[in-house]
Amino acid sequence: MNQQTLSGTWRFRQANTSTWFPAQVPGGVHTDLMAADQIPDPFVEDRELDVQWVAEKDWEYNRTFTLRADLMAEERIFLVCDGLDTLADVFLNGVFLGKTDNMFRQHRWEVKPILKADENELTICFTRQWSMSLAALQNVG
Q: 115 with 72: CB under 8 angstroms?
């Protein structure tokens, strides 16, 4: 199986705002907000009460990537996401791929017609959710 991981450095923001922060995928919005010094550690004392607002907001995660030439040569290419927690809209190069509603399922979309040989943009919009797991591009034969 030929695969290109999309894990690593992403960026994220609260939906409908203009400020982007660095993010790590796999990861979650709370850990990304802590790394950006935007919230205190919710696991210390009663600080969980101070960060409850995070779960009440929508969050966007975004990454640009260049597809490897050997993968682009494949007949079929799938975007595969594991652990999207839970309600999310997935877009590739501005094209809506679908909605997710179950963190415990693998989500897969055939994306070869949407991919570009140069820069591609993947955006995942989470509706009042906390974390994002693994995303990868695959050819599964």
A: yes
17-65 pLDDT, tens digit per residue, is 999 999 999 999 999 999 999 999 988 988 888 899 998 899 999 999 9
Give me the CATH number covering residue 40: 2.60.120.260
Q: Kindly report whether the global pTM for this prediction surpasses the value 0.90.
A: no
Q: Which residues pair with 111 in a beta bridge?
A: none
Strands (E), the chain: 2-5, 8-14, 21-25, 27-28, 59-66, 78-82, 87-92, 95-101, 106-110, 119-126, 131-132, 134-139
- The answer for residues whose C-beta is within 8 angstroms of residue 25's C-beta and 6 or more apart is 6, 7, 8, 10, 61, 63, 132, 133, 134, 135
Q: How many CB atoms lie within 10 A of CB 43?
A: 9
- Tell me the two tokens of residue 121: 């943009």
Structural domains in the chain (count): 1
Domain extent for 43: 2-139
Structure tokens belonging to residue 9? 């450095």
